[in-house]
Amino acid sequence: MKFLRSHFALSKGQQNGIFVLVLLIIGFQIFLFLNFPSEAQPMIDQSRIDKFQKKLDSLNQNSIKRKDTIYPFNPNYISDFKGYQLGMSIEEIDRLLAYRASGKWMNSAEDFQKITGISDSLLLKISPSFRFPEWTQKLNSVKIQSTTSAPAEINILDLNSVNAEDLKVVNGIGEVLSQRIIKYRNSIGGFLSLIQLKDVYGLTPEVVERIDQKFDLLSRPDVTIKNLNLINEEELAEIPYFNSKIAKEIITYRKLHEGISSFEELAKINAFPYDKIDRIKLYLAIE
């Protein structure tokens, strides 16, 4: 025992040295704790936060504006939900749907108000977004002109009822072109718009303009504008500019993509006559 004690016994100087060493270690630990925290606190750049917040506010305002925007539409195809979004009452929507269910069509904002009974303020708000087919605007123009006095010497003929001889009065139209116009008119069941004259081979834009000066569409074929997302393949094939092959391609594309949202999509369909899209829109709508 004395042998072990002789090895572990410390002198007073050694004990003091150990005590001082312990104090130094503790002091060094305190120094590290106070001057070097375990996790550095991130610096907050308030100016960047303010800038980001302003950007978010701007995006929110733009989103609100977009919600209030009314995009162009044909009021003949207003659904009950669309009517609700526009601010129409249930009674007004019911009157509109009942009118359309009877197979009748509206051709002007005045017709829309007369049928639905909406207020002047609501009509003023939504009517700028109304888009009716071109031929309805032409027909309305003719109706207005017919109620006003016109010089007796002006005699506008109906392009859908004239014969080949009548067409020859136009400079640039002879026997061949006059017969060609009549034949094409009969093949499509009558013109809905003068733009369909583009499809008559041999007619130049200048001659079409002369036709427009002497003839008008005072009558039109009984055509129902079909919803491209609801029409079936057989009905689609009967529309001018289409055949059974194109109709099948359209229906296949519609099924694969769960509907068609715009006419621009149709350009993706093989063999689709997109150069005639302005005439195709006379027969089809996308809802």
TrEMBL record:
Residues spanning the membrane: 16-36
One cellular component (GO) term of this entry: type II protein secretion system complex
Listed Pfam families: HHH_3
Alphabetical GO biological process terms: protein secretion by the type II secretion system
Keywords: Membrane, Transmembrane, Transmembrane helix
Lineage top rank: taxon: Bacteria
InterPro entries on file: Endo/Exo/Phosphatase_dom_1, RuvA_2-like
Keyword Transmembrane helix attached: yes
Entry keyword annotation includes Cytoplasm: no
Gene3D superfamilies found in the cross-reference section: AF1531-like domain
PANTHER family linked: ENDONUCLEASE/EXONUCLEASE/PHOSPHATASE FAMILY DOMAIN-CONTAINING PROTEIN 1 (PTHR21180), ENDONUCLEASE_EXONUCLEASE_PHOSPHATASE FAMILY DOMAIN-CONTAINING PROTEIN 1 (PTHR21180:SF32)
Protein's name according to its UniProt entry: Helix-hairpin-helix domain-containing protein
Natural source organism: Christiangramia sediminis
